[in-house]
Queue: 2 jobs
Job 1
Amino acid sequence: MENKIKKLIIYTILAICGLMMVVPFLWMLTTSLKSQTEVNKGNVGFFSLDHYTEYSSPDGKKYAAKIVHENGEETVVTIFDKSGDIILHEPQPITIQLDEDGIKKDFTFTSGEYLKVDSSRIKTVKKFRLHWENYVNAYKKVPFGRYFLNTIFIALTTLVGIITTSALAAYAFARMKFVGKDFLFYLFISMMMVPQPIYLIPSYLILNYIGWIDTYYALIVPWMANIFTIFLFRQHFKTLPQDLFDAASIDGCSRFGMLWQIILPLSKPVIATASIFSIIGSWNSFMWPLVMTNSPQLRVLQVGLSYFSQEAASQTSLLMAASTFSVLPLLILFLIAQKNIIASYSSSGMKE
Amino acid sequence: MKKKSFSPYLYILPAFIIILLFRFIPIILSFFLSFFDWKITGPGGFIGLDNYARLVTDKYFWQSMLNTFYVVIYVVPFSIILSLLFAVMLNGIKKFVSFFRTLYFIPFVTSMVAVSIIWKIIFNQQSGLANYFFKMVGIEPLKWLAEPTGIWTMFMSNFNIALPHWMGGPSLALFCIIIVSIWKSVGYNTIIYLAGLQNISNVYYEAAEIDGASKKRQFFNITLPLVSPTTFYVMMMTTITTFQTFSQVYLMTGPPIGGPQGTTKLIVYYIFEQGIDKNDFSYASAVALVLFLIILGLTLFQRSTEKKVHY
């Protein structure tokens, strides 16, 4: 019995903490579907109802209205149709009497966009509605399509590059003998842990010297080799039995042929792991593309989203919609392959 | 046959060229740059240690350093303790383990940019979730990312105690970044800890059980010592990544970025500001090199203590 209570407590704590991990994302989702007007009014909880002002005309039709002035039994309103155009206005200017500090004054609405109606015909309606149009509006506001394509293109080319260069180098490090092998390997490893901010500025100068600043090359080529992946591949290639290679050698298989025909088919899990790291890394990389590119058409998703967050700073709903569709592809990928992805991270963590 | 003798180098060549050009040379270059006067106008002359002399008297450098240390000092222990707790709890249950693991891991795989944007709005004074909750439970709303006052100053003022400025701790704005960093890193660390815990043989616990050791003692005398290699690894990784905090500063704070009153300016943002915004490549390199030395020093220190601790 005591054990059961303990279990219950553990599950409760884990569930509460788990909720804290996803609450920001849930809130992002619910905010992305709200009307900006409600958010600006401070209705920032997870759910809120939209408040509409509605005008019921004498012939029984209902219209969206905006109150311009309320004066007792008379209200001056603007009436809209569904597409937001102003309809139902009075051709003549409207004059109503205002009561200010006991002094009666005439006030005239001149532009002819107004309608004087009976106050009883105006009421506030609460309605729950999901504002999917936020997604369309955010997507239209800046060229997110282009950002997505840039990101996918860069992620895929980088991925192909990393797998190729790493397989070749790891093959040499794992299964060949040559002068300076250990020195080269440790030179590589020693640079693995150097953080990006250290080499950011000189890399910028080098790319600038080659003329690659503000080109796709700057976003792809420097990332086409990855020391950690070489290391990961080498560890795996070393475990393959020598007999395989001896047999292939007798059959006349060339050195390169062995890599292609023996090693790679036996390395699918480790290639998958490296691909996961590479894709997540490319997709989420921010500082490098921010520094190395200027043109809007070269923006990757993260940089585009960052600029959008400055432009649309006050439009929370749009911003949350943009954030949602930016994280969604990777999130879906993660949820589909979560078992493999987590296993990859947890196994590669302690391989030093 | 002769061809075979150099072919290993051909295999390494593609990776080697890229690593040479975009890792090795930049790292060496950053060292040289810091002794020159290289600005947007191009390479200037050798100026010896001038950049470093400037750095010593640069109060913004010291402020960024202090802010960065605050972040590291708060994020690393909290992230480690929380993730160890989560891992121990997950290790003790059978159902829903993979569900919780997935849940905790989501922040880690999500981009820092999106995460920063979400949290910036959560901490928004008017339209944020944080103040919404505060209002709901009747706590006075806070200024969060716009609050330059130290968290301990704020906390102690509840008891009418005025702390001296240096004891104030990180500003509330910086504390928001700390929260985000902990939240983001816990998932990965939990996974690593979980793998570490699963490596501990059950034999120890069975023996302890026979000896009548309590669960608490088992945790402190078996789990904690035997999981210490993982702790060292997690500590090192979290320290290194936390020192590099950039996106949160760039996206969550300001305008101006690093505000309020520079209390959220972190060292990597300072490198970015000096090097990229102001094109003072040499000075930025000097700052980067100091960061490098600190990280290197900490790594070596952690490695050497790790070697002394053996179970």
Job 2
Amino acid sequence: MSVTMPPATWLVLGASSAVARAFAHQAASHGAALLLAGRDTEDLERQAADLAIRHRVSATPVAFDARDLGSHAGFIADCAARSTGTLNVFLAFGVMPEQAEADRDPATAAAMVEANFTGAASVLAALAPVLEAQRGGTVVALGSVAGDRGRPRNYLYGATKAALATYLQGYAARLSRSGARVLCVKAGPIDTAMTWPLPRLPFMATPQAFARSLWQRAERGAGSVYLPRVWWPVMGIIRLLPTRIFNRLDI
Amino acid sequence: MPDTMSAPEAEAVPAEALRGRGWKQAALQPWGRNTTAPCIAARPERMRELWAALDVPEGRALLARGAGRSYGDACLNPGGAMVLTERLDRILHFDSATGLVVAEPGVTFADLLTVFLPRGFVAPVSPGTAFVTLGGALANDVHGKNHHLAGSIGEHVAWFELLLPDSRHLRVSAESDPELFRATIGGIGLTGIITAVCLRLVPVPSNALVVRRTRMPDLDHFLAGFAAAAEASYSVGWIDALATGATLGRGVLEVAEPSESPVAEPSPRSRSFPIDAPEVLLNGATVRAFNELYWRRAPMEGRQQVLPYRRFFYPLDTIHGWNRMYGKRGFHQFQCVLPFGPGEMALRRLLETISASGNASFLAVLKVMGREGVGYLSFGKPGYSLALDIPARAESPALFATLERITRDAGGRIYLAKDSLLSAEGFAEMYPEAHRLQAVRARVDPDGALSSGMSRRFGLG
């Protein structure tokens, strides 16, 4: 069954980011209802209005804090109650402070691990029984090519995404038994607020182009996928580089 | 974003001052690509980030920028700070009973067309490209092919919201604060950052226009053609700016009315201009040949066609980056409005000057304008408007000085959204209400936090 069949609902976790917004537009243009979850509810109100006007779908802001682990069970129950049709989830939240900042300040490091991994694992755990009960649905989680091999520039961020990818492998296997699909997208750099201050990055995708490809994958795929596709061969090579050479590269 | 590049020469702000605050070094070009301005740039994706951007590193001068479709330094701030509003692009409210739409400043005319034309509404006034943002449209008080009837966009704005450098956030209408309203409409970004626009869309019977194209053999026929089309909803003329002598001012007049019946619209296909064209391709012979072909395309006896709004409003939008056609050095655009009567002779002199200069120019646009705009720096006034591109060359400033002189002598005005070369004296003469803008700026921005390349060129600070 296609996820685009109305009346499906997409719950977008971390809905304020540019990638999440672009994905929400994809889902809405295919007729899905949206639950927009995040901390900046004033922003989510604006986004909900925009989605509703442009695509004539229902779009609702929901308060969500990835680091408030205690709230996750109640939050998922609330979302399940609000959703129509099959509940699908796009997990898009994450932060990327500079590595040097994380090295200087343990609280920054801990906050990143908590948001990117602990929070993700926690909310996915709360979600699993809902997906199992509905015997279907799709989970798309935003990973990163940075998780494939730790680089000096952002290895703590990369580690959180590697942990998420590993978590998702087992999570996908568990949910496959009840017919739900899990897709981990290993994203290359996307032109968003997160990458804006950085020097120009290779193969940068626009959020819209990225979301279009991701939507196509989400409609059928499971497992993991590199997007943009060029990162599949690139990361294949980078993973295989001998340590001696890798350590000397400025990448 | 193709026109953002890393800028090693702009290292004035230390990296430490930018870190973790959403700013970066950038080098921005205007649409005419005739200059590159080093600056720092932020690109907020939500209002919270926009507010944070008011805390400018090192107290640099600040300017908002939408799509960067201004041709000159109206959208530049060399050595200063630019806030790019393109990602603030949510449509917040729409009332199909009144046609009122409320949207963030980064919403474009393309967005409005995509979302509201299927519901039977179009923008009351639309510039020649759909990539323009609403924030930019207000800041330049843009006009379209219906200026003779509808005026420019400021007349159709119920209110807007404005963020001042000191974080005050105001909803401004012509009633609530007429001075600030008139200073911001057409105020080229110098009064604050527009955060929302409430615009009155107009109902239309279908997605299409009935367009009639007629060949005009010379300038006299052209002006007579415009006079005859005074009641037409839309009118615009394409002039062969290289024609001389008896054919001076020849071109194609297009008039259009909303169509009662719709047309099937193929999904928009776009192509990109792939490279900076080698300048050798852009010479008198090639441009002359192109203009000749364009002129002959319209049959002598005229032709009537039903066209979707998109094709009539935005003929160049299917070729992304057409500005690269003028090569690496870019181009200047000259657009002026000349009052009826004395303006006709000046129009002739402008065309003669351009033609004689040998500066290759593709089609020029001729238009009749109806009335003054609401803004202190609004471009509109009754008369003929002429717009054309001129490739940037060493002799461009001298040519533009001549064009400016002709325009001033005729009591005309040069359009700030297109300008890069107008003199400060010329500006003061053409925009006699600039002191009112300055008075409002002294009130809303007493510390002079807002500034642009253009405002400094004109001595506005």
